[in-house]
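Annotated sample (chain length 187).
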Amino acid sequence: MINATQIRRGMIIFMDNKLYRVEEMDHVTPGRYKSTIHVKMRDLESNVRSPFRFGSSDRVEKVTLDSKEVSYSYKDGEHYIFMDNATYDQISLDKDFVGDNVFYLKENEPYQMEFFQGKPINIVPPLSMEFVVAETEKNMKGSTVQASYKPAKLESGLEVTVPPFIEPGNVIKIDTRDGSYIERVSK
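Output written by the structure step:
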């Protein structure tokens, strides 16, 4: 158990028989009144984001998850098959569990899988990954002085905004935390 004032972004909290990941945290001290901690957490089972408010003297249960390195192997109908890199065991996860991470799945790519009491809880892709741009609009030379971004669709189906010089067939690096463009890797 930790004091609510020790809550930090990224922590896993066990509350009301559910696991929550802290996404935002703000410590509010309104003048002469008691300070409160405003937290936005995501339920790891239902993937619903909710706000919570704690008093500075409240205590919460911090959870440490086990983590294993796994590789994505293939898709089998509605299930995605991962392989534990240490034991070579196969782990089958349904599409609801994988969620938006489906856009970051590449065969034989390493991922971190988080477990709680032996049950998979989350898939964490690498912080950045490289993808081929499948389609995007043509660049109109000299159309504007300021940089303007345009939509692009990647080989995985993910839609991102990219600078105007990016063309179909380019390989670009994407930040997997928010799906944003980082840089062009090759033409």
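Annotation: The chain has one helix and 16 strands.
Annotation: The chain has a mean pLDDT of 87.
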